[in-house]
Amino acid sequence: MRIPFNKPHLTGKESHYMYQAVYDGKLSGNGEFTKRCQRFFEEKYGFKKCLLTTSCTDALEMAAILCDIQPGDEVIVPSYTFVSSALAFVRQGAKIVFADSMECNPNIDAEKIEDLITPRTKVIVPVHYAGVACDMDRIMEIAERHNLLVVEDAAQAIDSYYKGRPLGTIGHLSAFSFHETKNIISGEGGMLGINDARFIRRAEIIWEKGTNRAEFFRGEVNKYGWCDIGSSFLPSEVIAAFLWAQLESLDEIQAKRKQLWNKYYELLKPLAEQGRFRLPDIPDYATNNAHMFYLVCNSLEERTALIKKLKENDILAVFHYLSLHSSDYYKDKHDGRQLPECDRYADCLVRLPMYYDLSESDVERICGII
Ligand SMILES: *Cc1c(COP(=O)(O)O)cnc(C)c1O
Fold this sequence. Notes:
Low-confidence stretches: none
Number of domains: 2
Order of helices and strands: HHEHEHEEHEEEEEHHHHEEHHEH
CATH class of the largest domain: Alpha Beta
Number of strands: 12
Structural class: alpha/beta
Radius of gyration: 21 Å
CATH topology of the largest domain: Aspartate Aminotransferase, domain 2
Strand content: 5-15%
Bound molecules: pyridoxal-5'-phosphate
């Protein structure tokens, strides 16, 4: 039996809630299901305000606007990340200053951030790779000392914590993804998390095409109009209804994923102890939300051979990011600094199949082949 890399999980209630949204006759955004999803996050994790978006990329674009990025402003972003972490700021005219990863895991190396700060620096974007926290105390302390904003790219980090604090609630703003490859999905989808209350009003306006429509519908103003820039960042109620079904099953989904993750870890530990590859490193300050199970091979050749061997056995394992500082789009704009840890993860990291409907015996079969 073929084992894919990812398979979207359905809880069974998605179509029921989607039908309800249709039946209620409210299909555009910011209706009951949207509010329910936003309230879920605000109450469970303590965000000041959450706004659903059509993707995490959109939430990052909203964050870039809220940070008031002007052409030439500098934003510090890890190079080993998804394009959107940088792209959203580039669209506002930012210059990206790429940072290297840590030696122990692919997250941004907080100890190397301070050397990258100049008078033009405005924002730091920590990305919680595989849902494992960056060193947020260190990053927030640096940001405070230099008067910078912090936007957490928490695309992979739902229901994960740093020293007991939910990821996405620590920086000034944060962005989540509900893309079908994440733990909780709505096909395409995302959310902006707001932790600094001074951003709430403007965020609602940017979200609704630059208008104060949200205030109008709350009865706070008697007409609404054009107040600012913005776009149509909000998803339809049909998407929010789908997402609500997923959120109702969050605990069950997380428990199953963690069980599979632990099985992988236990079965692969002996090989890691022999130095064949490295397993994910989760620092004491971080939790694991089982978004991803990855190995770091000792070389590109070994990784290529491993992916090939798994493929011959109908198992799809995949590598991940190519360093953004050497991408076609950015290599001529990068300042030329070497980022050796990013390049090592680009060459050596491999992700194994990880999804709710994977079974423990699938994990045993995969580990047997490894
Ligand atoms: C998935 C992902 C994104 C993009 O999410 P979309 O919802 O597809 O826009 C951004 N950053 C990281 C780190 C991701 O993993």
